[in-house]
Sequence to fold (354 residues):
Amino acid sequence: MGKPWYVGYFEGKSWLMNVAFTQDDIRKVIDAAKDLKYKFKAKVPTPYLVGKTLFMLFYNRSLRTRNSFEAGMFQLGGHAHFLSPQDVYTPTLPEDMIPYKTEAISDVARVLSRYGDAIAIRIYGDAAKWIIGRGHRVVEEFAKWSAIPVLNMEDDLYHPFQALADIMAVLEVIPNIKGKKFVVSYAYSGGLKPLAVPQSVAAIAAMFGAEVVIAHPPGFEFVDDIMNKIRELSDTYGGSVTVTHNMKEAFEGAAVVYPKAWSPKGFFPPYSSAVNKDGAKEYQNKFKDWIVTMELLEASGKPYYMHCGPADRGQEVTDEVLDKYEKSLYFNEAENRLHVQKAVMAMVMGSKYE
Ligand code: CP
Fold:
């Protein structure tokens, strides 16, 4: 049995953020993911990474990411190895080393490169000391030293595999989103969530030429450089980007709404002199009315509803929407995580010549 075209297509490349790729590259991933999704459902074997190992380093908890990567590697004939940072010498940036408790990322990356075929990392929030951009620096440090591909399983700026699964889910119901209103909105949560998902989703929607509307209360602005990148992508791919502070107005006539929580960046370095988690929670508690209800979706013209999960029921969204809204893509997005990740793993870890 020959291998499909996509095995080894991006051989040796790391996948840290989708914005490092082109729309054409992303379409190639989606095409590969479609093939893998079909084969998964038809029970066609896909032994494209036999004997290969993925090391997964989770500094934060996970349901979807861990299980979809682990199951995905197994289904490709390889092995996914779970690494908890406290059970190894915690891989750490040079400024935070503690003797015999931590190990330099430069060394960990080079050791793991001798054992396997890719390293995947999740790090944000407390694990990144709530210094916005520090989690991404950790992922970049791994990529700098690793001889094998590094995969970003979510840092504090980007969640590329979530956005790939999301765009696949959207294109399954709206084959062309160019010119369609795609709302990425804040929704209230009592917890502190990173900016990774909204920034990645807005960026990928811009890469597909959507009319991107970013809705949030004052204080929830994206990181400046990433906002600039989203605008640049929108210009390149013929879409538009607008920002509003009104959720209801944003939803009106939308094709897709993606309402989820993120944290107000002004309470965290480098946007403040110290980390102020209590201040951030107190501030975001003013916006409990940023919740998605069935009434809001119906009054807006019934857009597709999206959320990366886990959604905070009763805060970001009502039970009724998650359980009964017929245009919810919530579980399709989770499902597609498996297929896009298998696609990228086959593309970067696979070889055309083996
Ligand atoms: N959406 C997402 O990354 O889910 P997990 O936190 O469960 O991995």
Q: What stands out?
A: Residues 162-333 form a domain with the Rossmann fold fold (CATH 3.40.50.1370). The mean pLDDT is 98. The two ends are 13 Å apart (CA to CA).
